[in-house]
Design a protein that fits this description.
Elements (H helix, E strand, L loop, with lengths): L3 H27 L2 H6 L14 H8 L9 E14 L2 E14 L2 E16 L2 E16 L4 H4 L9 E2 L5 H7 L2 H5 L5 E5 L4 H12 L3 E6 L2 H13 L4 E5 L5 H4 L2 H6 L3 E4 L2
Parallel strand pairs: 4-5, 6-7, 6-9, 7-8
Antiparallel strand pairs: 1-2, 2-3, 3-4
Helix pairs in contact: 5-7
Amino acid sequence: MTSTEDRLDRVESHQAIQQLPIRYALAVDSRDLDAWVGCFRPDVDMGRHGRGRQILRQYIEPQVRGFQRSVHQICGHRVEFTGRDTATGAVYCRAEHEVGDRWIVMAICYFDDYARVDGDWYFSRRRERHWYAADVTDRPQAVGFTGWEGAGEPAFCPTPSHLVGLLEGDVMARLSGRTALVTGGGQGVGRGIALALAAEGAAVVLTGRTESRLKDTAGEIAERGGRAYTVVGDVGSGTTWTGWWPRRYGSSAASTCS
């Protein structure tokens, strides 16, 4: 039987965690960077960028310069405890951003990790996934997930482990020591495929139109001990590809479109 003290701690922890998304939203919409980074644990892991709130601040500060007014409305929050001082959660959010002369509307799901540090609860990690991002005058289904260049990845896109399970083991084994071309490798399903292929030993060439996203995927592959290259451009353009692939990689290559 769980003690009364443990049950009370769980209730108080649940309430503290539920305050984090609205604190985050208020900080973003008011451009209060101190409050923004203060929602994250002091030693927040920023991957290859380093650790700590100052690193996080340096990462997010340039991003807020691209839009003016914003409104983040928290629609729902699920919390699941994984330990006394750790938890995971999912947060639904409808966000609106003023970007130049456009008013972008987004439906977002944040996948969160939480941790209690020195008695207080913080975000350990936030992964933002968009159902859509579109100008208020557009229909989301008409512009897809990339109606705005600031949109993130589609919600519930396949993870590398899901993709590995979808590909037969012998097929994946044959890619060891070979090179794979992944179009759209900077986000969504393409990113998941690239990570899965790299995990199986393939060198991966990532193509797409947004260099920063390609570099993020390539960096994650490198952190896991893999090899990745980036090519920014339109894969449908003959001038981009004529002679480039065979000269660099010969015939020992695989390709996949996403």
